[in-house]
UniProtKB/TrEMBL annotation:
Cross-referenced PROSITE patterns: ABM
Domain ABM: start-end pairs: 5-96
UniProt GO MF annotations: monooxygenase activity
Provenance organism: Bombella pluederhausensis
UniProt keyword list: Monooxygenase, Oxidoreductase
Listed name of the protein: Antibiotic biosynthesis monooxygenase
SUPFAM superfamilies linked: Dimeric alpha+beta barrel (SSF54909)
């Protein structure tokens, strides 16, 4: 049985904050890939709709994902996303 936990997050920002959001996600990706249990952490920007980004995350297990979410850098990222007017929609998954 595989215990990998995955998250796909769609984050929408006002168009005026697209470039700031892009810079923020570059930092988030770089830092999050260093977290214990991170198997994959990739950010994408929508090719057709400015201000829309997607994160794809894969974690070794639920404990790794929860530690990541509780970390200081992720909590700071949530605040930065909110400050830019970002709205997050998460899809929580477990590998079959």
């Amino acid at each position: 049985m595989n215990n990998k936990d995955c998250v796909t997050a769609i984050i929408r920002f006002p168009v005026a904050h697209h470039n700031q959001a892009r810079d923020l996600f570059r930092k988030i990706v770089q830092r999050s890939r260093q977290d214990e249990g991170c198997l994959r952490f990739v950010a994408y920007e929508d090719k057709e709709t400015e201000g829309v980004f997607t994160l794809n995350e894969e974690w070794a297990d639920e404990a790794s994902l929860q530690a990541h979410l509780a970390s200081e850098h992720v909590q700071a990222s949530f605040k930065a996303i909110e400050a830019l007017g970002g709205r997050i929609e998460n899809i929580w998954c477990r590998e079959l």
